[in-house]
Amino acid sequence: MHPTDPTDHRQTPRVLSIAGTDPTGGAGIQADLKSIAANGGYGMAVVTALVAQNTMGVRSVHIPPVEFLTEQLDSVSDDVEIDAVKIGMLANSTIIEAVADWLRRQRPPVVVLDPVMVATSGDRLLDERAVDAIRNLVRHADLVTPNIPELAVLADEPAVSRWDDVLEQAHRVSATYGVTVLAKGGHLADGSASDALVDAGGRLSGGRDLFEFPGERIETTNTHGTGCSLSSALATLRPQAPGWEHAVDRAKRWLTESITHGAALRVGHGNGPISHFAGLWAGQDGAWS
Ligand SMILES: Nc1ncnc2c1ncn2[C@@H]1O[C@H](COP(=O)(O)OP(=O)(O)O)[C@@H](O)[C@H]1O
Ligand SMILES: Cc1ncc(COP(=O)(O)OP(=O)(O)O)c(N)n1
Fold it and tell me: In this prediction, does ipTM exceed 0.90?
């Protein structure tokens, strides 16, 4: 996965995750750091919210004062050159505005926004009143990675269930916000798990407005944190890749392998995590000398 020479860290992207926590390690900041490392980056993390959750659901959310969030962001950017940022759970409009303000002052070259709204368990991770704020934040991103329900919220339209309708809705979102969209098909009910990169302005390689990434649904309940892990992988791979479509292609292959091996981790009684380092571990000799 590492660009060329694994001992030459001049090319290692320095990637910041701005997100909430998951003490079971499957989603949020904890998953992001694993994903960044697995995809060849140096991971850093600024916590937006502390979430008491596990593989079965969310128990409670603690949001530190917003001044402390800004203090964390400035601590990183005053010291480290950030190559890419991944933004995940933001919880409320005060936090969104603080992150937007920081981006206006310190925008890294690559900004990936996962517009986290509701966890698989059905628990809300974004205040319902913050939807307008998240729509404004989308305009600051290079890439936004909504799942099907989140795409509908960004489009301000009802959720769709046919893949062709997903592509059309993603096209409208891209045109409205002037952003590249990765529409994720993990919520499709037809046995597929395809994704699509859509840019209404034709900013993809070769002036294209669409790249599709077909995928088959893996029969597993180990899908906790797939969206977090994918967006972090993309933030890590984009500085290393010639275009978004190359980053998505590699990230999706890595994610598919990580989902496949998630159940072997034996973590939790609900929707378990993915195995971020399955590819690395597969190449290791288990024998002790
Ligand atoms: N069961 C599955 N098998 C294969 N890929 C999946 C599966 N579930 C999700 N994915 C993939 O994981 C990524 C996250 O998708 P999705 O579940 O739609 O987002 P989120 O986790 O944000 O709800 C996408 O690349 C999607 O195609
Ligand atoms: C802190 C935190 N952030 C995001 C999520 C949601 O994770 P995501 O990868 O979008 O998907 P699911 O885990 O809900 O499938 C989370 N649970 N916690």
Answer: yes
* Contact partners, residue 243, CB within 8 Å, separation at least 6: 204, 205
pLDDT, tens digit (0-9, with 9 covering 90-100), for 88-114: 999 999 999 999 999 999 999 999 999
pTM over 0.90: yes
Nearest to 20 by CA among 85, 80, 64: 64
Ligand 1 neighbourhood includes 185 CB (under 6 angstroms): yes
Q: Is the CB of 184 under 6 A from ligand 1?
A: yes
Q: What are the structural domains of the chain? A: 13-263 (3.40.1190.20)
> How remote is the CA of residue 79 from the centroid of ligand 2, in Å?
29
Known catalytic residues are 184, 223, 225-228
